[in-house]
């Protein structure tokens, strides 16, 4: 099926396929679903406010854009997607929203932000996401801790802050084996990667520096397996490790914005 999309709504960037066969994908300002397999045509989805009413933003700029690709997590046999908007709030005033979605492919607002946009998100393997707010320092630079209660289907959001988060820019986060890996943004100068227990995210004195990159080389995404093998991707480079960054090898790719989806 060939479908013409509204070009003013931006590129088609992120998509997921649920186990029930439903397909969901986004432009920067619109989202769509296919509920009859890949044989049917997509239909536009109306996102919802937290109270279930239709979401009608005053300003629309990258409302549904995710910094990294959307990812399905399964909790108590429920498939969920949680993400934060990588939007241009500074110039447009468009809100930096946090969204959640089940396999019905209808995004619902969890929190409407007014300060900065969101970068990467990490899931702890049980019931909690950690969403990294970026591009800035000070009180607004936090990690959003998003906890899900599978019995009540309620979400609880709290802010994780510390001295380092408040003084640097951060872009990447991943969680493996109860450890969090957090990467600085390029505006920090020489971007570094830190490791700590997830339980110690609020205490930067327990963050251990495990990688120091080149000036302007941003760790944009960190992908690690439980055995320590992984790749850090960033601006014009990748870093490969086989032992949780105890040792690593750097490659300059010559390309802009290298990411692992």
Question: Could you walk me through the main structural features you see in this protein, from its secondary elements to its overall organization?
Answer:
The chain is mainly beta and 261 residues long. Helix content is 3%, strand content 43%. The protein contains two helices and 20 strands. It has helices at residues 89-92, 163-167, and strands spanning 14-17, 23-26, 31-34, 43-45, 73-75, 78-84, 96-101, 108-113, 118-123, 128-133, 143-149, 154-160, 170-176, 179-184, 190-197, 208-215, 219-224, 230-234, 237-241, 249-252. The chain has a four-stranded antiparallel beta sheet, with no helix packed on it. A hairpin with a 5-residue loop joins strand 1 and strand 2. The protein is globular and about 50 Å long. The model is unreliable at 256-261 (pLDDT under 50).
Spell out the blueprint of helices and strands.
Elements: E1 14-17, E2 23-26, E3 31-34, E4 43-45, E5 73-75, E6 78-84, H1 89-92, E7 96-101, E8 108-113, E9 118-123, E10 128-133, E11 143-149, E12 154-160, H2 163-167, E13 170-176, E14 179-184, E15 190-197, E16 208-215, E17 219-224, E18 230-234, E19 237-241, E20 249-252
Name the features:
261 residues, mainly beta, four-stranded antiparallel β-sheet
Summarize the structure.
The chain is mainly β and 261 residues long. Helix content is 3%, strand content 43%. The longest helix has 5 residues, at 163-167.
- How many strands in all? 20
Shape verdict: globular
Secondary-structure-based class equals: mainly beta
Q: Mean of residue pLDDT?
A: 84
Biggest sheet architecture: 4 strands, antiparallel
Helix content: under 10%
Radius of gyration: 18 Å
Q: Report the end-to-end length measured between terminal Cα atoms.
A: 26 Å
Counted by DSSP, the helix tally is 2
H and E string: EEEEEEHEEEEEEHEEEEEEEE
Strand content: 35-45%
Strand order of the largest sheet: 1-2-3-4
Low-confidence stretches: 256-261
